[in-house]
Design brief:
It is a single chain. Helices cover 34% and strands 28% of the residues. By secondary structure, it is an alpha/beta fold. Helix 5 links the parallel strand 7 and strand 8. The protein binds hypoxanthine (HPA). Hypoxanthine binds next to strand 5, strand 8 and strand 9.
């Protein structure tokens, strides 16, 4: 066990899906995994391991934001030898052509956070997805007829900004959407030599001020999990 995960070393599979929300982790396990066993209840950060299409897959909730996400990803990498980590989450669109309910595959993640500035002594690391996971997910999404975008996302430390124009400089540089975890995931996996991908659905539109209904969120979340599991099963 590690500090925040009570599972025994072999209780967690090398391929792990990472939702922020513990109840989403439970829902994924109940809907999509066979013989799922709960491997973590510490702080209610629920985690489960089961089987999908005969392959052993884990799902571990990570909470919101890079500090919380980093704790779980660090422990999965260092204590449980996770090798393929797929974040499944939501994002806010920063571009007129990226619509509510679209899928966004984060090929890279810019950030307003100071976390990597400390790690890299003021220099700039470019957190990047695993290309093969990205290509596989993109092709699979197209085959499923999903509206999918690939590009740079902003991993922000702030959900509620005091500055109404905060998003404009990122949008002007082609950043597709804002979320709060991917830069940490890609950085930690790069250091560990593990593979990572963030698959996101657009739950709100920052430019247009729209948000998806609860029903739309659930539907799009379901489609995203099916895609993420296709990626997970192929890489297990
Ligand atoms: N900002 C940050 N994270 C998010 C957002 C957002 O607008 N929407 C969903 N996750």
């Amino acid at each position: 066990m590690s500090l925040h995960i009570e599972a025994k070393p072999d209780d967690i599979a090398p391929v792990v899906l990472l939702p922020g929300d513990p109840l989403r982790a439970k829902w994924i396990a109940e809907q999509f995994l066979e013989r799922a066993v709960c491997h973590n209840q510490v702080r209610n950060a629920l985690g489960f391991t089961g089987f999908c299409k005969g392959k052993r897959i884990s799902v571990q909730s990570t909470g919101m934001g890079m500090p919380s996400h980093s704790i779980y990803v660090h422990e999965l990498l260092e204590h449980y030898r996770a090798r393929v980590l797929v974040r499944v989450g939501t994002c806010g669109s920063l571009q007129p052509h990226v619509a509510l309910r679209d899928l966004v595959l984060a090929s890279s993640a810019s950030t307003d956070s100071a976390m990597n500035r400390q790690t890299f002594s003021g220099m700039t690391f470019a957190p990047t997805a695993d290309f093969e996971l990205l290509r596989f997910a993109y092709d699979a999404a197209l085959k499923r007829g999903l509206r999918v975008r690939t590009g740079n996302v902003l991993t922000s430390d702030t959900f509620y900004s005091q500055d109404l124009n905060w998003w404009k400089v990122w949008a002007a540089h082609g950043v597709l959407a804002a979320e709060m975890e991917t830069a940490a995931l890609y950085t930690l996996c790069a250091r560990a030599g593990a593979r990572a991908l963030s698959i996101l659905t657009v739950s709100d539109h920052i430019v247009k001020g729209e948000s998806a209904s609860a029903e739309e969120r659930q539907q799009t979340f379901e489609r995203m999990i099916e895609l993420a599991l296709e990626v997970a099963v192929d890489h297990a």
